[in-house]
Structures are given as C-alpha cells and as structure tokens.
Design brief:
globular; 3-stranded antiparallel sheet
C-alpha cells in the first residue's frame, strides 16, 4: 500500500509511482479511478487536459495502460520483448504461422508496426485499422475469425506493434480509436533492439519488485507473459532475498526497509484491474480459495475493498442514468467505522464518475 501510494490523500501525475510501470485502463473504473484513489484529481481535469495526460497505449499483456506522456520513449524501451523467443511467448498462437513461414517474431512486430503507421495518418477506429492493415500483409500474419466471418490480423501482434508504430489510444473511446503520438515516431525508442535499455526507473522487472515485491522471477514473468529464463537473466543485482511465509522471494535492497512497517490505516475501493490486485502471488492477498475465486473470476471481475492492508470484501457498481448504486459483499461483519469509510469511498467513486450516489447495498 505504501509503495503504491494507496495511503496518501493527494498527489499528481508527476509523482505517482504506479505510472512508472503503467496503470491498466480496463473498464469504467480502470486507470483514472486507480489514479484517483492515489490522490490524483483526474475528475477535475477538462476533456482537453485528459486527452493530453495521462496517455493510454497498449503495452504489457496487450492491455491498455496509462503513462505520463513525457515518459513514452522510455516506456517503449521498457516494454520491448527481451528477445525473439520472448516476443513469440507474448504473441501467443500468432507465432506458429510466422515460424512456419521463416519470419522472426520481432521482425513480424516491426512489419505490423510499419503497416499500422502507414494506415493511421488521422484518428481511426481499431476495426478500420485492422481491416486496412490486413490488406497489406501476407497470410502468416492473418487468421480467419469464425464469429466475424472475416480475416483479421492476430490480436496480440496488432496490439503489441501499436506503440512501435507510434500510436496511442484516444481516451474515452470504445471501440478504441488509434491516433499518432505527437512528437514520437518509430525509432525514437530502441524498438529494433530486443530488450532495449530503458532508464532504471522504468525497467519492468525493477518496477515490479518496487511496487509488487517481494517477488520471484516466476511472478514477474507471469505479469509480463515472458519466459522465466529471460527474467532470471536480467534479475537486478541489488535484489535481496527475503523469506515470505517460509518461501524465498526478492525485493530491491533500497526498499527492504518497507517490510518492517505495519500496514497504513486506510480504506480504498480498488478497481477490478488495479495494480494492487495484479501481483502474481495472489495467495498472499487472499488465502481462501473461495474468496480468491470470487475476486478473480474468469469473467466479470468485481472490485476489492482494501482496509488497513487486507482485502476484506468485494464490490460492484450499478449505474442507471445519472445515479450509481454500489453493492458490497464484506467477508466478515463490518464495523460501523468501516461502513462509514466504504460510504465515503463510494461517494468518491460517484463524484469521479460525475453521477450521484443513490445508495449502498451491503450483502449479509
């Protein structure tokens, strides 16, 4: 909680640590809500300001993430696959036809990026970009989609090539609209160099250890969809080993002092894809399998109620017109104080969404 600044009341984009690794922007309570509960007043920004900062791009696991605009060159270097084998792991089933055609995975990403760059000269919806790029590429890059009865690019190369192509996602668009990043062009980052060097602050392995550690190489590899060996080969020399429930894990030496602190007294309603919930050592957050299944279902994730360092329940929003109701399922009988804090957070969510809180429904 302290490393991710979930204990603070105010901050700004410049000093928000989670923007170093990227804030996943999935769903209505995605990236901007994650910033809001860390004290960043994004609800007060105008539409013009929101279009400028923070910026959304597809990066880790092909998901949309928010970053500071000034950091995009460093981010592009940081999220590069470590090697051609790593690129193959990250693009999933798209690697099979490429391999059969003798096309290297990184070369394929460059080819897709060049085609996307040539097509997106003005803001364009994702479907149109995909359709037009498909006409420019050879069969190894394409797949037949039964549900659409059409031929498309493979999804992961398309997403992972977008930043290489110098493309961002226009905020508030669904389906997403892609447009060129101003003053950023392919070649600004070491995209043609596997595992290109990024400034230490944005190195994804270090950032994971700083914000989600202690962790193991397998945890970090799972977060990145990268091979464990690639992560081990780049493991920070200043990572120190600690014991977590009798199991070895690592944290950056400069952050080891945090392990001596108790949890801060704070209550937050985490969005379904908040970074706090993205750690791969989930059993440390939720030991009970039934509760873990409720928090991380295959489809339709709820949010989590975080109270004094523990996940104490789940929540779901229900918006009707200009009204919002929040359903809360606590995992133990909540105190009056906790209910007051949850109510305050729900009011904050309603204000963030620019609607009125109509009420809170507490299960049990």
């Amino acid at each position: 909680m302290r490393a991710q600044q979930l204990d603070r009341d105010a901050g700004d984009v410049a000093d928000t640590a989670v923007l170093d690794i990227g804030v996943q922007d999935t769903g209505p309570d995605g990236g901007r809500w994650a910033l809001a509960i860390r004290g960043v007043g994004v609800a007060e920004l105008t539409d013009r300001e929101l279009a400028r900062e923070p910026v959304a791009v597809w990066t880790v696991r092909g998901a949309p993430h928010l970053y500071r605009r000034a950091d995009l060159v460093s981010v592009a270097a940081a999220v590069e696959p470590f090697s051609d084998a790593d690129a193959g792991r990250r693009i999933y089933d798209a690697t099979k036809p490429l391999k059969a055609a003798g096309i290297a995975n990184l070369d394929a990403l460059d080819t897709v990026a060049a085609a996307m760059r040539s097509v997106v000269t003005s803001p364009m919806a994702k479907g149109e970009v995909s359709g037009r790029v498909a006409t420019l590429l050879d069969p190894p890059y394409l797949r037949f989609c039964r549900s659409c009865d059409a031929t498309h690019l493979y999804e992961m190369p398309f997403r992972l090539a977008a930043l290489r192509a110098g493309l961002e996602l226009r905020p508030g668009t669904s389906p997403p609209v892609l447009e060129r990043i101003a003053d950023f062009a392919p070649g600004d980052s070491p995209g043609d160099s596997p595992g290109g060097t990024a400034p230490e602050r944005f190195d994804v392995i270090r950032a994971y250890l700083r914000l989600l550690g202690p962790a193991t190489p397998r945890d970090v590899a799972g977060y990145l969809d990268a091979p464990v060996k690639e992560v081990k080969d780049r493991w920070p020399v200043d990572a120190v080993e600690v014991s977590v429930d009798g199991t070895s894990a690592w944290v950056l030496a400069a952050d080891a002092y945090r392990l001596l602190d108790g949890p801060p007294a704070a209550t937050r309603m985490l969005g379904p894809f908040d970074l706090f919930l993205q750690a791969k050592d989930r059993s440390l957050l939720i030991a009970d399998p039934a509760r873990a299944k409720a928090l991380w279902p295959v489809l339709g994730r709820p949010g989590a109620v975080l109270h004094d360092g523990e996940i104490v329940g789940i929540w779901r929003p229900r918006k009707t017109g200009t009204k919002l109701r929040v359903s809360v399922e606590p995992w133990a009988r909540p105190t009056a104080t906790l209910l007051d804090e949850i109510t305050a957070q729900a009011e904050r969510l309603a204000a963030h969404r620019r609607v009125r809180l109509a009420g809170i429904d507490v299960a049990g």
